[in-house]
Amino acid sequence: MCNLINGTTITLYDARVLDELEFFHIKLELHDVIYAEGAPCETLLDVDENAINFSEYLWEYGPLISSNAPCAPVLGFGDRVEIKSRFRSAISPWFDRRQKLDIIRDRLDEGEIVLLRQSEPVS
Protein backbone atom coordinates (compact mmCIF):
# COMPACT_ATOMS: atom_id res chain seq x y z
CA MET A 1 0.00 0.00 0.00
CA CYS A 2 1.40 3.39 -0.92
CA ASN A 3 1.71 6.36 1.38
CA LEU A 4 -1.58 8.31 1.40
CA ILE A 5 0.03 11.65 2.27
CA ASN A 6 0.15 13.66 -0.96
CA GLY A 7 0.93 17.12 0.45
CA THR A 8 -2.24 18.63 -1.03
CA THR A 9 -5.45 16.99 0.17
CA ILE A 10 -3.79 14.82 2.80
CA THR A 11 -0.99 16.46 4.79
CA LEU A 12 0.93 15.80 7.99
CA TYR A 13 1.00 18.34 10.84
CA ASP A 14 2.52 18.37 14.29
CA ALA A 15 -0.21 17.38 16.77
CA ARG A 16 0.31 20.56 18.81
CA VAL A 17 -0.30 22.87 15.84
CA LEU A 18 -4.01 22.13 15.40
CA ASP A 19 -6.88 21.57 17.83
CA GLU A 20 -8.72 19.18 15.53
CA LEU A 21 -8.14 15.55 14.58
CA GLU A 22 -9.49 14.00 11.41
CA PHE A 23 -9.79 10.26 10.88
CA PHE A 24 -9.85 8.47 7.57
CA HIS A 25 -11.64 5.16 7.21
CA ILE A 26 -10.42 3.35 4.13
CA LYS A 27 -12.87 0.95 2.53
CA LEU A 28 -11.43 -1.54 0.05
CA GLU A 29 -13.24 -4.04 -2.12
CA LEU A 30 -12.07 -6.76 0.28
CA HIS A 31 -11.47 -6.13 3.97
CA ASP A 32 -7.76 -6.32 4.81
CA VAL A 33 -4.91 -4.96 6.93
CA ILE A 34 -2.91 -1.93 5.78
CA TYR A 35 -0.07 0.03 7.36
CA ALA A 36 -0.89 3.50 8.70
CA GLU A 37 2.14 5.43 9.95
CA GLY A 38 3.96 2.09 10.16
CA ALA A 39 1.32 0.41 12.35
CA PRO A 40 -0.85 -2.39 10.97
CA CYS A 41 -4.55 -1.51 11.08
CA GLU A 42 -7.74 -2.81 9.52
CA THR A 43 -9.57 -1.19 6.66
CA LEU A 44 -13.19 -0.21 7.19
CA LEU A 45 -15.23 -3.34 7.75
CA ASP A 46 -18.78 -1.99 7.88
CA VAL A 47 -20.29 1.31 6.83
CA ASP A 48 -22.36 3.12 9.44
CA GLU A 49 -25.85 3.43 7.99
CA ASN A 50 -26.43 6.53 10.16
CA ALA A 51 -23.45 8.36 8.68
CA ILE A 52 -24.14 11.71 7.04
CA ASN A 53 -22.79 10.55 3.68
CA PHE A 54 -24.34 7.06 3.72
CA SER A 55 -26.74 7.86 0.86
CA GLU A 56 -23.77 9.01 -1.25
CA TYR A 57 -22.01 5.75 -0.42
CA LEU A 58 -25.04 3.71 -1.52
CA TRP A 59 -25.37 5.73 -4.72
CA GLU A 60 -21.73 5.19 -5.65
CA TYR A 61 -21.12 1.62 -4.43
CA GLY A 62 -24.56 -0.01 -4.25
CA PRO A 63 -26.05 -2.07 -1.40
CA LEU A 64 -23.84 -3.33 1.40
CA ILE A 65 -22.51 -6.85 1.20
CA SER A 66 -20.90 -7.69 4.53
CA SER A 67 -19.51 -11.20 4.55
CA ASN A 68 -16.14 -10.00 5.81
CA ALA A 69 -14.89 -10.82 9.29
CA PRO A 70 -12.53 -8.66 11.38
CA CYS A 71 -8.84 -9.45 10.90
CA ALA A 72 -8.14 -9.15 14.63
CA PRO A 73 -10.29 -10.01 17.64
CA VAL A 74 -12.75 -7.25 18.55
CA LEU A 75 -12.62 -6.26 22.21
CA GLY A 76 -15.22 -4.16 23.93
CA PHE A 77 -17.49 -3.77 26.91
CA GLY A 78 -21.22 -4.05 27.42
CA ASP A 79 -22.85 -1.58 29.83
CA ARG A 80 -22.72 -3.82 32.92
CA VAL A 81 -19.29 -5.18 32.04
CA GLU A 82 -17.89 -1.65 31.71
CA ILE A 83 -19.17 -0.70 35.17
CA LYS A 84 -17.39 -3.74 36.63
CA SER A 85 -14.25 -2.82 34.68
CA ARG A 86 -14.31 0.75 35.98
CA PHE A 87 -14.77 -0.57 39.51
CA ARG A 88 -11.76 -2.90 39.11
CA SER A 89 -9.72 0.08 37.92
CA ALA A 90 -10.89 2.27 40.81
CA ILE A 91 -9.80 -0.23 43.46
CA SER A 92 -6.60 -1.23 41.64
CA PRO A 93 -4.27 0.93 43.78
CA TRP A 94 -5.21 -1.27 46.77
CA PHE A 95 -6.35 -4.53 45.20
CA ASP A 96 -5.47 -4.97 41.52
CA ARG A 97 -7.96 -7.35 39.89
CA ARG A 98 -7.87 -5.64 36.47
CA GLN A 99 -7.97 -7.72 33.31
CA LYS A 100 -5.92 -6.98 30.18
CA LEU A 101 -8.68 -4.91 28.58
CA ASP A 102 -9.07 -2.86 31.79
CA ILE A 103 -5.34 -2.07 31.78
CA ILE A 104 -5.37 -1.08 28.12
CA ARG A 105 -8.32 1.27 28.69
CA ASP A 106 -6.63 2.75 31.78
CA ARG A 107 -3.42 3.44 29.80
CA LEU A 108 -5.41 5.09 27.02
CA ASP A 109 -7.27 7.21 29.59
CA GLU A 110 -3.96 8.25 31.19
CA GLY A 111 -2.56 9.28 27.81
CA GLU A 112 -5.69 11.32 27.14
CA ILE A 113 -5.29 13.16 30.45
CA VAL A 114 -1.65 13.94 29.68
CA LEU A 115 -2.60 15.31 26.25
CA LEU A 116 -5.34 17.46 27.78
CA ARG A 117 -2.91 18.88 30.35
CA GLN A 118 -0.35 19.65 27.64
CA SER A 119 -2.96 21.50 25.59
CA GLU A 120 -4.11 23.72 28.49
CA PRO A 121 -2.83 27.30 28.27
CA VAL A 122 -0.18 28.20 30.84
CA SER A 123 -1.18 31.21 32.97
Description of the structure:
The chain has 123 residues and is mostly helical. The protein has helices spanning 54-61, 79-91, 100-119; strands at 33-36, 39-42. The longest helix is centred in the C-terminal third of the chain and has 20 residues, at 100-119. It is extended and about 55 Å long. It starts with 32 loop residues before the first strand and ends with a helix. The mean pLDDT is 75.
Write a concise synopsis of the structure shown.
With about 120 residues, this protein is mainly alpha-helical. It is about 35% helix and about 5% strand.
Strand content: 5-15%
* Low-pLDDT segments: none
Strand count: 2
For the sheet with most strands, the description reads:
2 strands, antiparallel
- The mean pLDDT is 75
Please state the CA-atom Rg, rounded to the nearest Å. Answer: 19 Å
Output the number of helix runs: 3
Q: What class, by secondary structure content?
A: mainly alpha
* Strand order in the largest sheet: 1-2
Annotation keywords:
single chain; 123 residues; mainly alpha; two-stranded antiparallel ribbon; 2 strands; extended
Strand and helix layout:
Elements: E1 33-36, E2 39-42, H1 54-61, H2 79-91, H3 100-119
Antiparallel strand pairs: 1-2
